[in-house]
Known about the structure:
Elements: H1 3-13, E1 19-22, H2 24-33, E2 43-46, E3 49-53, E4 61-62
Parallel strand pairs: 1-3
Antiparallel strand pairs: 1-4, 2-3
Amino acid sequence: MDVRVLVDIAIDEDPRAPCLWVPSEGWAEFCAAIDQRPNLIGAVIYRNKTIRDGGPLTDIVTGSDQGRRA
Length: 70
């Protein structure tokens, strides 16, 4: 599965999340697939979500998983 399909799945599974992080390994592929370049803060807007590079060796993560305490 390509990274755009995985991002679409993540958005569909968590539609209320305001943002999403994509692993660095798939970032360039994702930006090319949606024909966008990151803005000045390194984000792209896709399907009304802020999408950012999440760093190397990470999973695709939605914003609702951020900031939770165990």
